[in-house]
Amino acid sequence: MDPRDPSSFNVQLTHVADIDLQYVDEGTGPVVICIHGFPDLWYGWRYQIRHLVSLGYRVIAPNVRGYGQTDATKDVKDYSLKNIVSDLVGLLDTLNIREAVWAGHDWGGSIAWRAALWHPERVIGVISFCTPYFLTRETYVPLEKV
Question: pLDDT tens digits for 39-63?
Fold first, then answer.
C-alpha cells in the first residue's frame, strides 16, 4: 500500500441493497470500518489504513452512497443516515463480518454514532473525529428554521 498511489490498495465493488458500493479491504484481524466525511473518499484514510494494517487490523474503508465509484441515487431521501448505515451494515454482511470498530471523520462520525444506536450488536466501539455525539430530533425541522 503506497499512500501516493490509490491503485496499490485492494479496492473492491459489491452490490448492497440497491447500490453498487466501492470499498477498500486490507489486512486481517479485528475489523475497523473507516467512514469518510464531506467532501472526501476512502482515500482520505490512506495513511491510517496502512498503519492499522501494520498493527494487525483488517480495515474496510467504503465510499458511501454518492461518492467515488459508489452509486449515486437520484432521490435525496436515499441519503438519510439510516440508509447509509444500512448500506454499511449490508457491506459487513456481504463480507461475513459480525462486528467492527466504527471510525468516522466529519459527518462519517455521525454515521458511526448512529450505527452504535441502531445496530449495537455490530459495534465494538466508536471513534469519531470532528463529530460529537448529538441527539436525534423527535420532529423534523426544515433547514430554513435551524
Answer: 999 999 999 999 999 999 999 999 9
Bridge partners, 19 (sequence order): 16
Rounded distance, CA 96 to CA 4, Å?
Answer: 30
CB 22 within 8 A of CB 68: yes
For range 1-28, the mean pLDDT: 96
Decide if 25 contacts 58 (C-beta within 8 A). Answer: yes
**Is the Cβ–Cβ distance between 59 and 26 less than 8 Å?**
yes
CA distances from 97 to 27, 68, 90, 104 (A): 13, 23, 10, 18
Distance between CA atoms of residues 11 and 68, nearest Å: 11
Instruction: At 16, list the grid cell.
Output: 448492497
Q: Output the average pLDDT for the chain.
A: 95
Rounded Cα–Cα distance for residues 12 and 117 (Å):
28
User: Does a cis peptide bond (omega within 30 degrees of 0) precede residue 39?
Assistant: yes
Of 3, 88, 92, the closest CA to residue 52 belongs to: 3
